[in-house]
Amino acid sequence: ASEGGAYSGSRCLEAFRELLSEGSGDSMDDKLGFVAEVIASNASQYAASEGGPKEAMLRLSVDQMAGASGETLGLCENLVVALEAICTTEEFVVPLAGLCESKDDAIVRASLKLLSEKLYGMRGKLRHDAGAAVFDALSGVLGRSRATEDARGSSLGVLEQGLRHFKDSNVASLVDRLLEEEAAVGQQAAAVARFLGSAVASLKSKAIPCLPKVAGRILDTLRSAESNTATQAGLHAFESLVSHHGGMMGPYLPGFFEIWKALVGGESEQKAVALLSRIAEEVPVRILLPPLLKTLGEPCTNPSVPVALVDALASLVGAMDHAAVLGSHHEIVDYLLSALDGRRSNKLGCREYLRLECSLVSCFVSLVMKLSEASFRPVFLHLLDWSTKGSERKGDAIKVSVARGITLFHLVGKVSDKLRSILVPYFKHMTESCCEWLERKPSAGQAKKPRKGSKPKGSEDALALWTLKLEVVNSLKKCFTYDTVGFTDEDKLNEILPALLGSLGDAPPASTVAELESLAGSLLGKESGGDAVAMEVDQSTPDGLQTFSSLDLVARETADCLGKMAVAGNSDMAWKRINLKVLMATRTKDVRTKLVAVEVVSRLADFLREDYNVLIAETVPFISELLEDEEVAVQFAVKDFAKKLETISGEDLGQYLG
Q1: Whole-prediction pTM value?
Q2: 3 CB neighbour count, 10 Å cutoff
Q3: CA distance 450 to 448
């Protein structure tokens, strides 16, 4: 019965072929539809038929499909689908491979399309004989002088999809043959690049002998790419090389980085940046670091290029082990500081530099987190030394001392967030510098009247100085916040407290205040300065009255810093000294200083609660003075403070205030 079924199926397929071969009679569309329906309805019977009739039917169907269009083409495709269902994989792909030798380009294109779809969806592997037949047919298309560019490109695409079905020796021979040919152009170059990349991945260690030529050809493809398709193909191929032979990519990275820089900002930027991240993951540190640092050190007009490269460096640092960090951290620190020295050449509001600075600082912090305390100390001292040196250069937008000071304290603030109490003892090396910058007065030359339509002369210097003061205050605040090691002793209080209070005597001009607020995100990592909640103001406060929360960012940050210092003092003597010194600062005509001082002692009272009772006696005389202040804003602020003390003490202070 099985033989009868097979015989019947084979005879029917032969009859169908004869029907479709006839040039007259019923319309071809009707014939195609009829044959496809019959085969699909009796698939199991036709699957048992002999291979010859199946192959003949498939060849005829592809031939019909090659010259068809519209509805007829759809019917031909349906017939091919029906034939695919009754054929084994080998029975389907071998005839298609044979059709690739046809002189009719339409048949070749149709066959390649069907082969591509079949190989793409396969789970298993072809038999060796079938794989060899397909490989020979496809490589034959590549070697045929009359083959069109589309046919060669499609053949390479099918070869790429079917690499696992072919012998490594055959693939290696084809790679050598392609490398010996003259470099292709256009879409053909893209197809060759994609195939070479996939072939190297398939061959694994067997690809090592041809790796230099393959890498060279892929880089040439990227250099000469005239379309996004060719560029994407080249990047895909280079990624394959990196993924499978990352340790051998050292000689080709300098050339790749040159090409890569030109791709940033173009259509292929996303793929290029993703590939850079992959390189950082796959290429060993000792191989990648030298060309990466060399590329980073080269001038570049595109601001997006160094940002992406620094991000790659940060990824590389994050992947380093201890030995790698010890061997290379000096070079990385030197580069980071040289790049951060760009602060002097850029205005503070330059968004392009702020993006780069953010990446540089993040990379520096990542490196610090990899260092032991023994190796971190020299880096920190080198940073301090660097911040005090440097000569002025023509074209500097900011004085070098101020620019490097901003960078120093910005780095210190970011590192403090990670190392916390570990970094606190290092502030002994910066205390003198902090006090000097806090006490530095704005230059008188900064107030010169500008020409119409221009920024005031020295206004950038003024903004830079206030930015530096803000960074100093922010760094000190973090020092006091994380001080669990007794840093805030009597000597430090005597040194730092007067400088902080004295700095309140100078206020930034209105234009600088607005710019500092806009820079708060990049400087302090938040929308506005001050992380403590200001003292609640009585709801009877007149609208528009100046309050602590309406003060400038520097004043609010200074109040935060003084509050953290008071907490870090952690002794009755320290609290008493701070409370008295801050209250003494209210004996000035400056409203800003008075509001900050009242806010600080109010926060100290909030922190100490009942323990503040011992300080009330020395506080009351100052409250009495401030209640008679000529500024209404000060009167309202001190009234709220007095109410808070009455709540804490449970005593009516009115009897002491006259």
Answers
A1: 0.81
A2: 8
A3: 6
DSSP state of 184: P
pLDDT > 60? residue 537: no
Q: 54 and 83 in contact (C-beta within 8 Å)?
A: yes
Which residue is associated with the tokens 């470099």? 183
According to the model, what pLDDT value does residue 1 have?
31
The residue type of 412 is: V
- Determine the length of the chain: 658
CB 622 within 8 A of CB 581: no
CB atoms within 10 A of CB 155: 26
CA angle 249, 195, 108 (to 5 degrees): 170
Separation of alpha carbons 440 and 499, rounded Å: 10
Question: Which parts of 546-653 fold into alpha helices (H)?
Answer: 553-569, 572-584, 591-608, 613-627, 632-649
Kindly state the tokens that stand for 597.
């001082």
The two most distant CA atoms of the chain are separated, in Å, by: 123
pLDDT of residue 267: 92
The Cβ of residue 423 has, within 10 Å, a number of other Cβ atoms equal to: 20
Contact between 348 and 523 (Cβ < 8 Å): no
- Residue 613 to residue 645: CA distance in whole angstroms: 8
CA 256 to CA 251: how far, in whole Å?
A: 10
Instruction: List b or e across 349-384, with b for residues whose CB sees 16 or more CB atoms inside 10 angstroms.
Output: ebeebbbbbbbbbebbbbbbebbeeeebeebbeebe
As given in the structure block, the two tokens for residue 357 are 């600075």
Instruction: Using alpha carbons, select from 397, 401, 528 the residue that is nearest to residue 460.
Output: 397
- Are 149 and 188 spatial neighbours (Cβ–Cβ below 8 Å)? yes
What is the overall mean pLDDT for the chain?
88
